From TrEMBL:
Pfam families registered for this protein in UniProt: FAD_binding_3 (PF01494)
Record's keyword terms, sorted: Monooxygenase, Oxidoreductase
Domain FAD-binding, residue spans: 10-346
Name by which UniProt lists this protein: 2-polyprenyl-6-methoxyphenol hydroxylase-like FAD-dependent oxidoreductase
Record carries keyword Oxidoreductase: yes
InterPro entries, per the entry: FAD-bd (IPR002938), FAD-dep_Monooxygenase_BioMet (IPR050493), FAD/NAD-bd_sf (IPR036188)
PANTHER family the record matches: MONOOXYGENASE, PUTATIVE (AFU_ORTHOLOGUE AFUA_6G14510)-RELATED
One of the record's GO molecular function terms: FAD binding
Length: 390
């Protein structure tokens, strides 16, 4: 590949067809590129969890021509209510004025969002059940080997393969992926438990619970403090949840009743990790989304940030050529670094505050602080996130 290639002829591989990867590939296709996408799973769907998507993310669906479809599956969130471990209401925040100013935050089932995004990438460009085995950089070109036995050469490889990124493992060394001492589950519960548009969370003592109404149903998310590597055998999952959440007030007794009728196989489970990286670019390999900058799930901003990064890298690629790709990647980092660092730092604070595995006394103080945290302060917190240019 000796000649300089411009815009649409730049050869791009996107590894990971999740939220960041599909957003990026969809935007590139819209601009006439034809990126290859490889996605590890054989098919989409299956288990998942509910996402709160802020306009920072959902605005990108407008450019993709998918906002209306997204809205047909997503429900606007107008109220955010926080309860203590015992079920006392600590604060209920009205999100209406933020929505009026910046656009509505929505709740959506993650697999549903992936389906909407999947539609923006042509079938010919995406290979399911495939991942990379080797990434070999030679000057300005990247040779990639895949699990299906094929190899190809690219100008750029975009790692959008999530928090446990294979691209990152094969290409980067400065990775600090640390277990955050929390494990979590998600499953459906009776939609009657909260009204549409109201997200409710228990900020407990070493445990956290949330209810998020989506068009697909009411999603319950639970998290507890747990040592790293604690196993979660499917046949003991329900007992483990019951043991961890017994004695919690509010909506938890109803959730535990609902748990009885769940099939353990249908309960999503994962551990919390946090990722800090100094570099997102290694020559002609770049990371976006959780692969580069995963925030804690409790912050509720990871998908929005992943979509923003996808939009910025797609934008930069339309204004370069194969020779000056390095500059475009530098611009991507410049445009994203301080915003991502800032949001990540805040997400760490709020994530730890929400679960707070310290002592009953400190949790009681935390509860008092939440009661005193005014509507205005909450709005300022989110305005900072929503008003920044990308
Ligand atoms: C329980 C929970 C709740 C959350 N709630 C929110 C929320 O309310 N709001 C919010 O904004 N964010 C939330 N997040 C975070 C959000 O889900 C992530 O930040 C977002 O999904 C990141 O998108 P991504 O595309 O970078 O990664 P992912 O969504 O993880 O997608 C990665 C994709 O790459 C694929 N893949 C993985 N490895 C490979 C490989 N080796 N080769 C090829 N493909 C591969 C995966 O199958 C997947 O399709 C939550 C996360 C969790 C776990």
């Amino acid at each position: 590949m000796d000649e300089v290639r411009y815009g649409n002829d730049i050869q791009v591989l996107v590894v990971g067809g999740g939220i960041a990867g599909l957003s990026c590939a969809g935007l590139l296709e819209q601009r006439g590129f034809s990126p290859d996408v490889v996605e590890k799973t054989d098919e989409y769907g299956g288990l998942g969890y509910a996402l709160g998507l802020w306009p920072a993310g959902s605005n990108i669906l407008k450019g993709l021509g998918k906002y209306e479809e997204f809205c047909s599956y997503a429900d606007p969130m107008h109220t955010y209510t926080l309860l203590s471990d015992s079920g006392e209401e600590l604060h209920s925040y009205d999100l209406t004025s933020l929505a009026d100013e910046y656009g509505k935050p929505h709740l959506i089932w993650r697999p549903r969002l992936v389906d909407v995004l999947r539609d923006t990438v042509s079938d010919d460009n995406i290979r399911m059940g495939t991942t990379v085995t080797e990434i070999d950089q030679r000057g300005d070109e990247v040779d990639v080997s895949f699990t299906d036995g094929t190899t190809s050469t690219y100008d750029l490889v975009i790692g959008a393969d999530g928090i446990h990124s294979k691209v990152r493992e094969l290409t980067f060394t400065d990775v600090d992926l640390t277990y955050q001492g929390m494990t979590s589950w998600a499953f459906w519960v009776d939609p009657e438990m909260v009204e549409m548009g109201v997200a409710k969370e228990h900020w407990g003592d070493g445990r956290f619970a949330g209810l998020y109404p989506t068009d697909d149903g009411l999603a319950c998310f639970l998290a507890v403090a747990a040592p790293e590597g604690t196993s979660d055998p499917v046949d003991q999952r329900k007992r483990r949840i019951r043991n961890n959440f017994q004695g919690m007030g509010g909506f938890i007794p109803d959730v535990l009743d609902e748990l009885e009728s769940q099939d353990s196989e249908d309960i999503w489970h994962d551990d919390f990790y946090d990722l800090k990286m100094d570099q997102w670019v290694n020559n002609r390999v770049v990371l976006i989304g959780d692969a580069a900058h995963a925030p804690l799930p409790t912050a509720g901003v990871g998908a929005s940030m992943a979509m923003e990064s996808a939009a910025v890298i797609a934008d930069e690629l339309t204004r370069t050529d194969s020779e000056y790709l390095g500059q475009a990647l530098d611009h991507y980092v410049t445009r994203r670094r301080s915003r991502v660092d800032h949001v990540q730092q805040k997400s760490r604070q709020i994530g730890k505050f929400a679960l707070f595995d310290h002592s009953t006394v400190l949790s009681a103080l935390r509860d008092q602080a939440v009661k005193l945290y005014s509507q205005e302060r909450m709005e300022r917190y989110y305005e900072d996130f929503l008003s920044t240019e990308i």
